[in-house]
Structures are given as structure tokens and as C-alpha cells.
Amino acid sequence: xxxxxxxxxxxxxxxxxxxxxxxxxxxxxxxxxxxxxxxxxxxxxxxxxxxxxxxxxxxxxxxxxxxxxxxxxxxxxxxxxxxxxxxxxxxxxxxxxxxxxxxxxxxxxxxxxxxxxxxxxxxxxxxxxxxxxxxxxxxxxxxxxxxxxxxxxxxxxxxxxxxxxxxxxxxxxxxxxxxxxxxxxx
Length: 186
Known about the structure:
Layout: E1 2-6, H1 7-22, E2 31-33, H2 35-43, E3 50-56, H3 64-70, E4 75-78, H4 87-104, E5 110-114, H5 126-135, E6 140-145, H6 152-161, E7 162-166, H7 171-174, E8 175-177
Parallel strand pairs: 1-3, 1-5, 3-4, 5-6, 6-7
Antiparallel strand pairs: 2-8
């Protein structure tokens, strides 16, 4: 199994779309994704061949990526642009790795996409377009996304060609509040 993790999409969709519903009185600055819990949810005891995780370079005092590295995950870090953020370049880095994997590995297996992004499908680009290409080569897909922010076509694709996991159902396992609620272990 191969995991493609769009950290910005998972973090900000949870922060902006789910936290206000699940814990409306919590200060947004204290919300965090619990990487170990999310990785455990996706792997469910299966062997992970490789995790591809991309996100933006944090401020110098941010221990975010240290937690990821302790899990043995290599990251692709993209500088954050003052004007447009880093979403496009992060997505491009992951999509390039996704297509390379899909063509370089001779025996197709399972790919888990941790995103909700279906952007670009109308022009044949993006996670959804690439996943559609790779299903034709025999790859199976699982999509893990915050349902509140998931592209409807990505959700439909996952349900028709693999599995779809609504992260809201696992909120307490994959998030925590700094100085407050701790994550429940899976």
C-alpha cells in the first residue's frame, strides 16, 4: 500500500470545516492533526510500502515536521508563497510522485489518497484525473477526506472504484487540541 498525503488539504479542511462543528468553542490556533492516529487509521495493520507527504515549510519553532519524521515519513516541503500559499505546488509534487509510482511499479496495488481535492478534473489534471488514469492500469484507490470539504466527484470516484473514508467519523482519533483534548488511540 502506498499513501499520498496532502497535509495542507487535511489540516485546513479539518480546521475550517470540521472544528467549528465538532468543537465550536475551541481556539482555532490550538487545533492539530494527529499524524500517528491518521497513519494508523489508513494502514489498519497493513504493510505500507511508502508514504508520500507534502506540505509547506513551517516557521522555525514549529515541531510539526519533527512529529512526522519520528513516524519514519519522508516529506516534500514547499516554501509558502506570501501571495498564493503552497497548495498548487504541493499538489503538483504529490501528483508527479503518484503518476511515477503508477507507471514504475509493475504489479498494481492499493493507493490511499489523503485529500479532498478534485480540482483540475475538467482539464484532465489533479488527483482525481490521475487516479482515474491509474485505475485503468489496475490500481485500487482509497480516499480519506473530510466529507465537509471533499470534492463530490472525488468522493463518487472512490465509492465506485475503491473505498471512501469520511474523516469526521474518526475525528477524536486523528485530531487533538493543544493544551486540551488529547487524541483517542485507535
